[in-house]
Write a structure and sequence with these properties.
By secondary structure, the chain is α/β, with parallel strands linked by helices. About 45% of the residues lie in helices and about 10% in strands.
Length: about 375
């Protein structure tokens, strides 16, 4: 690990000196510090500080998971301006999967050995609690060792409402059927003005945060996210991160934070505003800021699907300690223009990590490690 003196000496932006000293002393950064992280041009110093924190927390260990992405429906009655995935009833693209469809898919050779099934989907009022209970029970009966990670905070709110039951009852019944954790999507940006412009129809930020709180109280660990690179400003982003950090202080239920780069193609937001694709500079800044500001969230993911394999690899030196996973058959980001592969093999993930100078470690949803093959180390 680089010495404190060397880190301070390498800072080119003198306004970062006080923030850097806080980081090195293990002190919490405030809103003003966070804004400085978003406005400085000294990206190399941000990376150095974030890598220092990453090494302090995790050493060289870098996680990945053997995962399958699956959407049980793309029919959605919620209008998100950034989404190219949604379809309306009658659209030739529209689909709803049965439990049998999903079991057949999971039985295919490409999904052999998958440890985590990550399901998020559209908001379709014909799907109610009995659909999910049947789905989870049948999946777990056939594949008892596959971990079920399902529902954004917005999804669970929607499906509880159309089922005519409370969030608490909806989650209790889903947990009894096999639900084991929740992903972090649907957060987008918490600022209400921006939210109304990019995801009209989604519930306000407090709904997302309160549903995460309920999950954590029930023992369901979740992730958290932020969508960046659209019409947001630094103040909106640091406000978002601060709300996540505040909730984590209360519940300690977030496992990982994932910054999600907005994909510009085939969606209304990209046609309405003059938005350009995020740069590598911006993507690395998001990783570094997250690692420095979110001092109580253990893991920061570099989501290769949205920022490319190569940049995700670089992000391991900017604070990230998790490359997410194999992510077999991701649809949502690719429908919006992501140019990355539809999946990576475990070997490819191991190679990306080890060639960057880090140690690959296959994990489960709680970051418990599986025995690693010696060739991967």
């Amino acid at each position: 690990m680089t010495s404190d003196h060397a880190i301070l000496r390498g800072i080119r932006d003198s306004s970062l000196k006080n923030v850097a000293q806080k980081v090195l002393n293990g002190q919490r950064l405030n809103i003003e510090d966070g804004l400085l992280l978003y406005t400085t041009n000294d990206l190399s110093s941000l990376g150095s500080l974030a890598n220092h924190v990453r090494l302090r927390k995790h050493g060289l260990k870098t996680f990945y998971v053997h995962s399958r992405r699956l959407s049980y429906t793309n029919i959605c009655y919620t209008h998100c301006q950034f989404c190219a995935f949604q379809a309306k009833p009658g659209d030739p693209r529209a689909y709803v999967l049965t439990a049998e469809d999903i079991i057949k898919d999971l039985s295919s050779d490409v999904n052999k050995g998958v440890r985590e099934l990550h399901m998020v989907a559209g908001h379709y009022p014909k799907l109610k609690i009995d659909y999910f209970e049947d789905l989870f029970i049948k999946i777990k009966q056939k594949f008892p060792d596959i971990h079920l990670k399902v529902f954004t905070m917005v999804e669970m709110d929607y499906y509880a409402r159309v089922s005519g039951i409370s969030i608490e009852e909806f989650l209790d019944r889903c947990i009894a059927a096999g639900l084991e954790s929740c992903p972090g999507g649907g957060a987008e940006i918490f600022d209400e003005e921006i939210r109304q412009k990019i995801c009209i129809g989604k519930k306000d930020a407090e709904i997302w945060l309160n549903n995460a709180r309920i999950c954590h109280k029930k023992g369901l660990k979740t992730n958290c996210t932020m969508l960046y690179g659209h019409i947001e400003k630094p103040l909106h982003k640091i406000d978002h991160l601060n709300r996540l950090r505040t909730l984590q202080d209360e519940t300690n239920g977030f496992l990982a934070y994932i910054p999600l780069a907005y994909q510009i193609e085939d969606n209304e937001l990209g046609r309405t505003y003059p938005i350009r694709e995020t740069t590598g500079y911006a993507d690395l800044r998001e990783i570094a800021v997250a690692r420095l500001f979110l001092d109580n969230i253990p893991h920061i993911k570099a989501y290769w699907v949205m920022i490319t394999e190569g940049l995700a690899q670089v992000a391991l030196s900017f604070g990230a300690n998790d490359l997410d996973g194999t992510i077999i058959q991701e649809e949502i980001a690719h429908n919006a223009g992501a140019k990355t592969p539809q999946m990576l093999t475990k070997q490819r993930l191991q190679d990306l990590i080890s060639s960057a100078g880090y140690i690959p470690s296959e994990r489960d949803h709680l970051y418990r490690e599986y025995a690693q093959p010696s060739a991967a180390i």
